[in-house]
Specification:
The structure is a homodimer. Chain A is α/β, with parallel strands linked by helices. Chain A is 32% helix and 25% strand. In chain A, helix 7 links the parallel strand 13 and strand 14. The longest helix of chain A has 17 residues. At the A-B interface, helix 1, helix 6 and helix 7 of A face helix 1, helix 6 and helix 7 of B.
Chain lengths: 331, 331
């Protein structure tokens, strides 16, 4: 697979520089280009910081801006940002109200964000809370091991916590709110084609011409089963059934339905999947109160989709609707 | 290439239904689902209608909304909408101020929009003007034949004319303005992988592992040359040089720089290309006054990019900046 890049080693940084150049009205680099931050911070507001490996664009930099994130730390492709990057972001965006870290549940990310938080707290000048996002129901819950991964639902957490922070919610309240959104959010994905990592330009796994990978993550990890490709209605029913089962029951419940593209799937197919998912869920008594369709949380050029459902209450709906001004979400 | 669809025959319509379901606050179907229109028209405003084959999503439906299009007519994949669809859109969105048609320069589109316009005018109740967009400099200008194709620059015309119409500009003025934007706009694209048409699930042309197609259109047409893939800087320089040559000179001129993804190229690569294009143009004395980066005018799942440059003056800049509320462009 060919890519538009000068070299695999510089792809992530070159892309970040282009991003900052394109959205200079909203974002800027932090000192020494260690992270991307809002150009204008809101004094007295809790700072919200997220981050992770490159290769998931527009997550997280595309969600830096008023009403969502204050800073995003990006590592190399599929590689956690360093504690040093995260610490710099904490120090430079804390306006005294403390910092909320939103971290996807991967060992490397959790470890590095934790290390940065400890260093910041040890200095005695920062208060920090952390939300671990683990919305991927393709991975079974278990007492041991890392548990469920953080995938597309991460941006739902970022949007809702971001709106509450913008409205002045204190750190402790944001921690409770973020955990509540994680608990109310389930995601599952399916891929028709694996991810091509720039260093190798080979796919991380190869699917036959009639195969799909069900329960795919966002790093080219294999999913929970490899099935024959079926029509879109069957794929959507398979995923939505897993999600409904995991919730227990959503009958009569209002939800946000979010259909996400994994990087190489055209928007036309995402809308098609959305229409089918909406119909399936409505047939099962779920109320689609809010919608989001787009390519937001990706795995490089993977052809695939994920479906995320967040159970809404009045407060979450209100926070979802609050204005947001980022490169990738804007209303 | 696998796709998320129930059948090739229903892909376009299924996708449209999902689109309308996802954006019911902005759009709705016209009568008999012949086209997609703004849910709330602005009385007394010139109606702006565009359209074309499916497979270019989010164009055109994603640009229906306040400050841009009033209606979009979509055909089957890479197939013009019928005069019947276009006529319905004209009749149902004309509030008395007339209708501006924005048409990409392809024989089928031009013919069907023209036929619809003639039928509408013959009825004696509609005033119509048409803008033909032909921004693709990969095709040589010539006295005979169809001439240059309409590609990504189309949405620049739609945005600027849409803002002027929203502000109350009369039909004759919009015709002059639209033609002026077309004249000020140049686009060129390059593909790393051809388009997979759903009916065949085969690529329209096959590129070797080290080949790229330069001057690609948005229907899987071959480009003007097949070259060895080079690094991104060289690709960007090649395209930008063609664009600058075609303009003659842009030294000291303010422009809109628009990097567009053709469907299968990740946003990270688009930002990388944007950063390089911006630097190249600035080195050549061009002033990047406005920017747009994203997957807006596509060719199904083609891996590729196009670069569009529109020369701006004070009025065009102001109209570009005016608020827009569509599914795919919003500020």
């Amino acid at each position: 697979m060919k890519k538009f890049m000068n070299s695999a080693a510089t792809l992530a940084q070159d892309s970040l520089e282009g991003f900052v150049a394109a959205h200079g009205d909203i974002v800027m680099f932090g000192a020494e280009q260690k992270y991307v931050r809002r150009r204008e911070l809101s004094p007295g507001k809790v700072a919200i910081i997220s981050g992770g490996g490159a290769g998931h664009e527009p997550m997280h930099t595309g969600f830096v801006g008023r009403g969502m994130l204050d800073a995003a730390c990006t590592g190399h492709v599929f590689t956690s940002p360093t504690p040093d990057q995260i610490l710099a972001a904490i120090r430079e965006t804390d306006s005294g109200a403390g910092t909320l870290l939103i971290v996807k549940n991967y060992d490397g990310d959790v470890m590095n964000f934790e290390m940065a938080a400890e260093m910041a707290i040890a200095g005695g000048r920062h208060r920090i809370e952390t939300i671990i996002v683990n919305d991927d129901i393709a991975v079974e819950r278990s007492a041991r091991g890392t548990g469920r991964r953080g995938v597309a639902g991460t941006i739902v957490v970022e949007k809702i916590a971001g709106a509450a922070a913008q409205a002045g919610a204190p750190l402790e309240e944001l921690k409770l709110l973020g955990d509540a959104v994680v608990a109310a959010t389930r995601t599952m994905g399916v891929a028709l084609k694996g991810t091509t990592v720039p260093q190798t330009t080979r796919e991380t796994f190869l699917l036959g011409p009639d195969e799909m990978e069900v329960g795919i993550g966002i790093h080219g990890e294999p999913g929970r089963s490899r099935d024959k490709v079926t029509d879109a209605s069957s794929i959507v029913a398979l995923i939505c059934r897993h999600i409904l089962d995991d919730f227990g029951s959503l009958k009569g419940q209002p939800v946000l339905l979010f259909v996400n593209g994994l990087g190489g799937t055209p928007l036309s197919e995402l809308y098609l999947v959305f229409g089918l998912a909406r119909a399936f869920l409505e047939e099962h008594g779920v109320v689609i109160a809010r919608s989001l369709v787009g390519t937001y949380v990706t795995s490089l050029d993977m052809a695939g989709i994920s479906i995320t459902v967040t159970q809404l209450d009045e407060r979450l709906t209100h926070l979802w609707d609050e204005p947001v001004q980022t490169a990738s979400l804007r209303w």
